[in-house]
Design brief:
single chain; 301 residues; alpha+beta; 3 domains; three-stranded antiparallel sheet; 9 strands; globular
Length: 301
């Protein structure tokens, strides 16, 4: 979620805008801290790909999103800016800290305050998260006297060596199942992120990781590509119905078909596109009639 200079100055003042520009210039993060930030970028890619694979939402009160619908940005134009994740339903802002004496400093509080003020001016669902590498530090921040806006700010603990990330990376393996290969998958995704533009969909990062690992990492074709491939096959091989029009735009499937002497024209809105994509890959309709019937059934769910 990005804001222009005029919006930031109007809501927060010129000093806040100047601080935002200074933050974007790089800061003074040490190499270990920057490595932890890179890990968290890869963590987001892995988490959302895993969630889609097992049909388990990565965020509360949301659906599982195809990796092509998840945009991950490192160093966004935001106050809470280390990692920002945009999905169709929510934007999550992460501040990544790898220091031993982490506290809610005035500067850190100010950044979260400013981000909250900006987001409250929109209708966009959002979450603000402070991530630390130590579990005891996370617990201390939760119970400290300076605990900050507990209803809008989360404190999270993540470890590059923890079992959680390894278990999720294992789901993305297309090689022999082993602990070592799970670490390889994680490392390849981190490497793919470092070689990328630092702002891209999770699907693009995974595609690069698959290429770097020579197919060891599972690749997720974009939902648009997979559906277009399905429609192309139907147009080429459906001999029962004359297809005058059949296409999808990410929200609905439109059609104009001629069957015997009858013509059928209209569209079907897909309310949960990710669920429809998963079903499409599992059942793979071979005719226009089957595709439209499947879409109509999805609409009624």
């Amino acid at each position: 979620m990005h804001f222009d200079k005029a919006t930031i100055e109007k809501l927060l003042g010129i000093e806040a805008y100047d601080r935002l520009l200074r933050k974007l210039s790089g800061g003074t993060a040490n190499p270990v801290g920057y490595e932890f930030e890179l890990f968290n970028c890869a963590y987001e890619v892995i988490m959302y790909a895993y969630a889609f694979s097992v049909d388990e939402a990565a965020e509360f009160n949301t659906s599982a999103h195809h990796p092509a619908e998840v945009l991950v940005t490192q160093g966004a134009f935001a106050f809470v800016d280390d990692v920002v994740v945009d999905t169709p339903e929510i934007t999550v802002f992460y501040q990544i800290k790898h220091v031993e004496d982490l506290t809610w400093t005035p500067e850190l509080k100010s950044d979260f305050d400013r981000q909250k003020t900006l987001m409250d001016q929109t209708s966009r669902a959002y979450r603000l998260v402070l991530v630390t590498h130590r579990q005891d530090r996370a617990k201390a921040l939760h119970v400290s006297e300076s605990k900050y806006l507990p209803e809008t700010v989360w404190v999270a603990f993540r470890s590059p060596d923890g079992p959680t990330i390894g278990e999720k990376a294992r789901e993305l393996m297309l090689c022999v199942q082993s602990e070592g290969n799970a670490h390889l998958v994680q490392w390849m995704i981190e490497l793919a992120w470092m070689k990328g533009p630092r702002s891209e969909t999770a699907a693009h990062t995974l595609a690069r990781a698959s290429e770097l690992s020579r197919g060891a990492v599972k690749e997720f074709a974009s939902s648009e590509q997979s559906l277009l491939q399905c429609i192309s096959r139907i147009i080429a091989f459906d001999n029962e119905i004359e297809i005058l029009k059949l296409y999808a735009d990410g929200h609905k499937i439109s059609y104009h078909l001629r069957w015997d002497e009858n013509e059928f024209e209209g569209f079907v809105v897909i309310r949960n596109w990710c669920a429809f994509e998963r079903r499409l890959l599992e059942e793979t309709p071979t005719s226009a009639r089957d595709l439209i019937m499947m879409a109509m059934q999805e609409e009624q769910l």
